[in-house]
Amino acid sequence: MPNKPTRLHLILLRRISPSLPLYIHLLHQYSYISFLLSISTHQHRVLSLFEEDMPEAKQPHLNGAFYGPSIPPSNTYHRPGRGGGCGCCGCLCGCLFTLLCEILLSIIVVVGLAAFCFWLIFRPNRVKFHVTDASLSQFDFNTTTNNLRYNMSLTLAIRNPNKYIGIYYNQIEARAFYEGQRFDSITFPSFYQGHENTTNLNLVFDGQQYVLLQGNDLSDFNSDKSSGSYSIRVKLYLRVKFKLRAVKTPRFKPRIKCKFDVPLNGKASGTFEAKRCDLDLWHW
Q1: β-bridge pairing 128-142 and 229-244
Q2: CA-CA distances (angstroms) from residue 262 to 88, 132, 183, 233?
Q3: Which of 7, 17, 75, 234 falls between 20 and 30 A from 166, CA-CA?
């Protein structure tokens, strides 16, 4: 236990400071706190000795009736449209989106497998169109009447390289253009082209037609007239069906475009060079 302040201490402290009563009060408080801390330390040591010697007491078993009736869980209320939870509408939309994705993926897989099997069985190849020959005996344009007189013939070769696919040409319409303006068109009767077959069509465009050539178009015509070779474009509008052994497909409407330079007879040197035609549009 710490020593208490003596009377002599108090006399000396009163002489040192005019606010001595406050210091005396603080000194008493310090002594009291020190005393309590020392008692607590001694009690802790005594309890430690007793706990080492005493065995561990077992807690008696309590049955369920001791605790009374069970407490029901609290119900939480979520306002719709608030918070981060998924509402009924959101879950429904999510399920529909997942279902649509699965259906779309299944369709893609089925179509891909069908196309792959079709390719393995038939090994389809693209039908080829070529302008193998062309001649122009007349191509005169009257700037006063805007009348174009022409006489052009060409040979169109259609090659079907497929081994198991035949083609029904229900309609072939050939349209001739110069500087973007159509000046004639002819049609062919329907026919069937067998597999691994080449069919040659002779196209003759003969007549006169009103066309409007002005500005750059007229300049291009004068340039072609000077060179003796004219830039012609022919478009083919087809209606075809494919025969896959014993099965016929629906009707297709492809468009083929052919662009070539044809020399005017007796005015251009050299011979005609064969040109390949390209697919312009494919639709049902």
Answers
A1: unpaired
A2: 72, 11, 16, 10
A3: 234
User: Residue 262 is encoded by which pair of tokens?
Assistant: 């044809």
Q: Which residues contact 223 (CB under 8 A, 6 or more apart)?
A: none
- Residue among 237, 235, 162 nearest 198 (CA): 162
Tell me the C-alpha distance between 122 and 119, whole Å. Answer: 5
* Nearest Cα to Cα of residue 242 among 112, 127, 110: 127
Q: What is the 3-state secondary structure (H, E, C) of 72-134?
A: CCCCCCCCCCCCCCCCHHHHHHHHHHHHHHHHHHHHHHHHHHHHHHHHHHHCCCCCEEEEEEE
Nearest to 204 by CA among 265, 146, 133, 119: 133
- Lookup result for tokens 């893609």: 108
Q: Which residues contact 139 (CB under 8 A, 6 or more apart)?
A: 148, 149, 150, 151, 152, 230, 264
What per-residue confidence (pLDDT) applies to 257? Answer: 95
Strand order in the sheet with 128-142: 197-210, 147-160, 128-142, 275-276
What is the rounded CA–CA span in Å between residue 158 and residue 131?
Answer: 9
Using DSSP, state whether 218 is helix, strand or coil. helix
Nearest-CA neighbor of 124 among 200, 195, 199, 197? 195
Query: What does the mean pLDDT of the chain come to?
Result: 78
Of 102 and 241, the one with more pLDDT: 241
**Token pair for 4:** 């208490």
Task: Answer whether residue 221 shows pLDDT above 90.
Answer: yes
Phi, psi of 164 (to 5 degrees): -120, 10
| Contact criterion met (CB below 8 Å) for 102 and 108 | no
